[in-house]
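Quick start: what a row looks like.
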Amino acid sequence: MGGSARAGKWIAEMGFNAGGGVVNWFPGHMAAATRAIRDRLKLADLVIEVRDARIPLSSANQDLQGALASKRRIIALNKKDLANPNIMHHWIHYFDSCKQDCLSINAHSRSSISQLLALVELRLKEVISREPTLLVMVVGVPNVGKSALINSIHRIATSRFPVQEKVKRATVGPLPGVTQDIAGYKIANHPSIYVLDTPGVLVPSIPDMETGLKLALTGAVKDSVVGEERLAQYLLAVLNSRKTPLHWERLVNVRVERSEHESHERTENMPRNRIQLNKSDVLYIEDLVKEVRKTLYVTFKEFEGNIEEENTLESLIDAQLLALRKAFRIPHKASEEARTMVSKKLLTLFRIGKLGPFILDSLPSYL
């Protein structure tokens, strides 16, 4: 379930996309946001660029890569629990080959963020700075977990330094010697290192439909921009082209049981503001997931066409969307309404990792 060139441009250019009309990915004001980020970057001594571990390249802003690369930078691939670990270590090696610090993280895990902050301190303390105070800025495209990361940093900072002092830094501007208060969280002494409390929101770079669909599938672009059904069709195209349903053959007649340890670990790493599920809710979700996986396996296994042909793959996807109505227990409704409901539920299962861990980007050649 790792990066695959097969599930690439030709899928993004399939008929269900061509028929969806022109996509206006972002409103015009986002360009102004990019200019503002360039100014704020001048304040930072180190940048943590948060990306989605499922799309390590597609979740970058290409226009700002030059400015970011000129800074001390750590790329934090967040949501590692949703990314395929068998592929993730290859991505870490790839960035290492580019002489780029990179860590895979879970923004809700204290140990994971402590590891990230240790690298931040190492990279800043090995540099003799003229500033007695060093600033770290968190940036990233929408919905990659910037705020969750900063919240975790805040908790760690407060435990290290219960009395948080205000930061003063020279303002970037025409008047020398002017200082301003900057809101941030102190994480280290000697030198004093602060993480700015407001993340910089980068505009995703969307050169083609494939990149846009990946960003929408992982939540960086609103579903309404693309349409839930188009997104669900793209997801199914990726699953089928990678033959993912075949991995679920052994699960068809076996109930997946969670151990107490797994349940405790999942709870520990849940964001604090997420609704805690009781046992009956968990069992309901697990039964639903099992039924969805079974449906996708059976429809894939029984399909007789060649899925490497676009029209044939579209026929399989249509059959799966129809069969999933029963799996999702959707009452009899008009066809279009039912497909939308199926699409929304399928996207939710993917986004919470119930269809397995994925990396949607293809790993570049680097050896």
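That is the whole record. The beta strands are 46-52, 72-78, 101-104, 133-140, 167-170, 179-182, 184-188, 192-196, 200-201. The CA atoms of residues 240 and 300 lie 7 Å apart.
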